[in-house]
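#struct-help
A.M.: can someone run this one for me? Single chain, 302 residues.
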Amino acid sequence: MKLAMIGLGRMGMNMARRLMQGGHQLVAYNRTSQKTDELAQEGAIATYSLSDVVEKLVPPRIIWLMLPAGKIVDDHIDQLKVILSPGDIVIDGGNTYYKDDLRRAKGFADADIKFVDAGVSGGIWGLKIGYCTMVGGDKTTFELLEPIFKTLAPPNGYLYCGPTGAGHFVKMVHNGIEYAMMQAYGEGFEILEASDYAKDFDYAGISHLWNQGSVIRSWLLELMADAFEKDPRLSDITGYVEDSGEGRWTVQQAIDTNVPAQVITLSLLQRFRSRQENTFTDRVLAALRREFGGHAVVSSEK
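D.P.: on it. Structure tokens below:
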């Protein structure tokens, strides 16, 4: 099939490559031209404006947006709605909030343009392994696009999840679970590191061992083994952990639907905590322990 990939970041670039390797014709566009030119050298059709993208495609045009969630997606959609034709298809493959899908799909429907949401997981390894893809939208449109999803995904690695927003909703919960899994691994290794045995532990070896038939084996543990191979005590990095939004949305959904998602919620809050040093909360706790129990406090450096 012929389609355009708009957004050639860490995910979009390799997704475009995988599609080309699978025999699809790829029209490439990025806000900065360097990555577009790079992909053109590998066989993509280079474009340097959204109108150029539309001109290089044949109706019904298929455009895949691989952009950061939020305003930048709306900005591109606003421009595309003016230049696309009835029957064209726009796929949002970024980490978009599913409620934004509902709003955007309505705007496209008014112009008789099809809209599909696709939650994509695979990270920087997706080019080689494939991208697990969770799809929402009109089922007939999904079936038309299925060769694209089949190329991107590993075997059995894509699924039609339901109407508009369902794909991104499933991906949102997927990422919430990911937060909790990562937090559990982190806490487990910290318990190991705090023990009397720590000096003898090979954390890369332990990570690898736990992936050999144990009940906690996972791809995350494979990546953990790789990280420990490079830096056995992770001494070259700090413990500052960002979040990209999906954990917050998952927790808010849990609140809205009265689901007691304690573990996912705490894993999100721990990420917030990782960005703070010498918090006011901790100083209040230390002061209270001193006042009611005479416990010693550690003075701040002048």
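A.M.: thanks! The mean pLDDT is 95.
D.P.: also worth noting: The longest strand covers residues 114-121.
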